[in-house]
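Re-run with default settings, no changes from the original entry. Doing this only to confirm the output is reproducible before filing.
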Amino acid sequence: MTESLFNRLGGVEGITQIANDVVDNHAANKLIGVRFADVDLPKVKHAAATFFVTATGGSSDAYQGKDMVSAHRGMNISPAEFMAVLDDALLALDKNDVGQREQEEVLYALYGLRSQIVGV
């Protein structure tokens, strides 16, 4: 039996570090950083980490936030911004020495959320 993506990403500790790095990358990203200028970054990092925990096979009740459509409604996120988010995630995965297979699984899952985020 294959180990869960949650475990392969390092459990809560590993995923929290990856999520923190992703959000830091977003805040520093020239294309999307402005969207993070006036937000509570620790709160966003917590939401990202708990979302990743739940989405990768960790505790099913870790994420208590909004669904993706509700969280992004009215933001009118462009396809280019969405791709910048994926690029930021890939950078964070690389920084945390996540293997190629796991990177592909994470990016596949994130891309699957595109219709719930772009242009809503």
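The mean pLDDT is 96. The chain has one domain: 8-117.
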